[in-house]
């Protein structure tokens, strides 16, 4: 028995062996977890190949190849095994393969384990050149290639064994030979640090990249207009800063989203031509972008802007020009209604604006009326949420043939003006540039006033202003006396 003394404490060979086993097991676990199983870059070991058909060599048999350059190698469960020369499956003395009684797929896999060598099979362990006794044992990697008939995935492995798929054998019913066309390689190949990075990137994309849910509607509804709410189904919608795009235009996200559900509003600007279009729906975050397999159809139904800004101005009398704001106003056969009265469209509408004139006949009498505005096209119709205040037409004041009596007078002289439409509101009277007092409410046809102070002797024009407009007495003049 070999003894090693460490800080005065004897350590036996089995202690060192146990320590080595623990380190090796840890390393194998790390390799498996971060590098995986497979062949290294530039190595083609353990390729499964068909044997020649001559003399029935390929009957229930195949070759396990070293690859182009021997030895071939493969990393399985953190253990690297090598194949120094080609070997036939049958040479391993395993149970013979069977002839399929129906079309069958078999899995060829590599079974790797560690076998303890104690000197019986390895004379070097007896240290004949020095101490002449065995001081340790070795763990030797061993392998065998097995076939799981009728299976496409590796079977459950016993303790201490690691499996790696090498190939699938797709075997027709009743055929006892194996040809190259029956063999489909399933090895993981080209293991390098960059490959590890690539596979970690794939894992990252799987765990963090947004994705649409297969087998369920990617989004509902399948079509809609600007500002329509669309529910998107998928996964990883809660990772990073998520954005949704319709045809490249970013959409507004609506509250209430989750890892598997997004609600977004169809953005503006997708139908500048006034015709329906089908666009891609995409969801992105810092990792990447997922694009739906189906397209979303953007309809051109007319639509008003959000309430509070649907038109300007929001009041007026007939013939007032009003600009409507919204979407898809350039679709064909555009009509605009104030209440039930059709308005005149001024000029050519754009996708987002149309100018109209307030129609006649909205107000009967002198009281304003609130009406909704409706837009119709061949694609549909929409009614404003905002109200337009239709105001009555206020008649303009007029002077009679004799506009005032008397025709002359000094400052503070009472004067009566004669005409029509004097009582509509907003009344002001001027002699020249001096405003005159109106001491009593006017009648529709008369205004009682006085000659204002500050006027020089001479002739002046008399003006009347009301809510309906302004009129002056010219060419008839009032004479101011000294």
UniProtKB/TrEMBL annotation:
One Pfam family linked to the record: TIG
CDD domains: IPT (cd00102), IPT_PCSR (cd00603)
Domain of life: Bacteria
GO biological process: carbohydrate metabolic process
Record-linked SMART domains: IPT
Domain IPT/TIG: 209-299, 301-391, 394-481
Protein name: Putative Mucin-5AC
Gene source species: Streptomyces afghaniensis 772
Phylogenetic classification of the source organism: Bacteria, Bacillati, Actinomycetota, Actinomycetes, Kitasatosporales
